[in-house]
Amino acid sequence: MLKDSKAFSSFSVDDIEKAKDFYQDTLGLEVKTVKMGIDLLEIHTSGNNPIMVYPKEDHKPATFTVLNFPVDDLEKTVDELIGRGVKFEQYDWGDMKTNEKGIMKGDGYGPDIAWFADPAGNIIGVMTRDR
Q1: 51-55 and 10-13: which strand pairing?
Q2: Of 23, 48, 66, 117, which sits most exposed with the smallest number of CB within 10 A?
Q3: pTM for the complete prediction?
């Protein structure tokens, strides 16, 4: 029934213009404004359906990762994003904790990953690409 549907992700923000500036200017993504009664954003990434971002007056940031970006060189990507003003989250979950840059090593349990928040507080991840 749904297996052939072109699914896509969406999430809310509290300020659509701040979100557009962040995703377009800070992260360097292609972002388009779409008018559907209200202004929505479409974030375009290579080979994927657009991600929809919509304004929500009573927005509450997600307490989980809403979007992940697999990358070839995590250290380089984190350094570049830090250079663009992105602040990475620091987590300490016992045996699993982030280093000073905010990178958590998967050590066989999963990919190396680092998280940061968008201006609305939603959590975004960058991680090592599957090999």
Answers
A1: parallel
A2: 48
A3: 0.90
